[in-house]
Design goal:
Shape: flat
Distance between the termini: 37 Å
Largest sheet: 4 strands, antiparallel
């Protein structure tokens, strides 16, 4: 199944590098899914779409790391 990624709203992840060099953007517009892209390649790069539950597990794990 392919998600329609046209017209999504993107935000820079709070886990991105503050100097703008390593920015990950995510969209909250797809129920049950989290599209992720590299902001440096926003118009040309790939978008990876994660199911919401595994994405939240990843975020919880990252948040626990020192």
């Amino acid at each position: 199944m392919r998600a329609d990624l046209n017209g999504l709203s993107w935000r820079t992840s709070s886990y991105s590098n503050s100097d703008g060099a390593n920015c990950v953007e995510v969209s909250d517009d797809l129920p049950g899914a989290v599209p992720v892209r590299d902001s440096k390649l926003a118009d040309t790069g790939p978008v990876i779409v994660f199911a919401a539950a595994p994405w939240m597990s990843f975020i919880r794990t990252v948040h626990r790391r020192p």
